[in-house]
Amino acid sequence: QVQIVESGGGLVQPGGSLRLSCVFSGSIFLLYGLGWYRQAPGKQRELVATISSAGNTNYADSVKGRFTISRDNAKNTVFLQMNSLKPEDTAVYYCNTYPAKDIYWGQGTQVTVSS
What we know:
This protein is mainly β and 115 residues long.
């Protein structure tokens, strides 16, 4: 059974940085593309960034140039480096496969950008 655990969230001032981590248990990690998603209060969950099994990346327009997704296959981990954070980046951040599978949603990690 695959388990997904996100970490690294917190409270940061506008313009600050955070690095999120997501550890996958199970070999499925190596087979699929992976994604970071986020859900802000009162809004639908949205896709933030994806990385293929080959390492190709894509980003939502709202984070392009500020966020970087990467993966460490040896550690079953995917990262999201977030720079130049804005208040509108405040959300619960989740990782999942891409496309997402309902059974893999975890608890997420809260990111709050506020002065």
